[in-house]
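ok, trying the design again with the full structure, not the truncated one.
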């Protein structure tokens, strides 16, 4: 009997990202059909267990423009959608996605947040943020003025004697006897 690898997914308006997490996969085979059928098979582990995956994606895929990168720890698939639009879910059907298919929160972008200038492409004009960690605080004398903290309370000093009903002050306490 075959096993299922863990799959993470995310999307953009024109792409679907699938990451198959299967370290040391041997003989991986990936097939993407234009109708949206995605199949994967490989062996992995010390006992060479067979891993298989068959996903019926929600819509059609442009298989010729899709890219697959087979790495040592995972297989990354960037699938181009046939029609650029947001999907409500990854798979066809009314049921829930299988337990081994999860959202890839590292790549996830909400439909409202997606722009052509993605956050990964954000240009800060050569600004080096690594130096900000060396900046000191402003201190108490920020502008040459003493800062007054209005919520400070007066605290009684330990040498002031306050007698509370039924208790003795520290100076009147007798040392314990053993």
């Amino acid at each position: 009997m075959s096993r299922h690898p863990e799959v993470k997914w995310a999307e953009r308006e024109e792409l679907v990202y699938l990451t198959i997490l299967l370290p040391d996969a041997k003989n991986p085979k990936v097939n993407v059909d234009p109708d949206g059928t995605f199949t994967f098979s490989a062996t992995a582990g010390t006992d060479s267990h067979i891993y298989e995956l068959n996903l019926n994606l929600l819509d059609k895929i442009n298989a010729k423009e899709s890219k697959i990168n087979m790495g040592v720890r995972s297989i990354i698939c960037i699938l181009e959608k046939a029609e650029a639009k947001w999907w409500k879910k990854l798979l066809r059907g009314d049921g829930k996605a299988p337990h081994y298919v999860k959202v890839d929160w590292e790549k996830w972008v909400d439909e409202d947040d997606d722009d052509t200038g993605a956050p990964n492409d954000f240009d800060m004009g050569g600004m080096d943020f690594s130096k900000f960690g060396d900046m000191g605080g402003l201190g108490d004398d920020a502008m040459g003025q003493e800062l007054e903290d209005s919520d400070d309370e007066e605290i009684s000093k330990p040498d002031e004697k306050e007698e509370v009903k039924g208790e003795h002050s520290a100076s009147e306490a007798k040392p314990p006897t053993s």
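Keeping the full-length input from now on. Confidence is low (pLDDT under 50) at residues 116-124.
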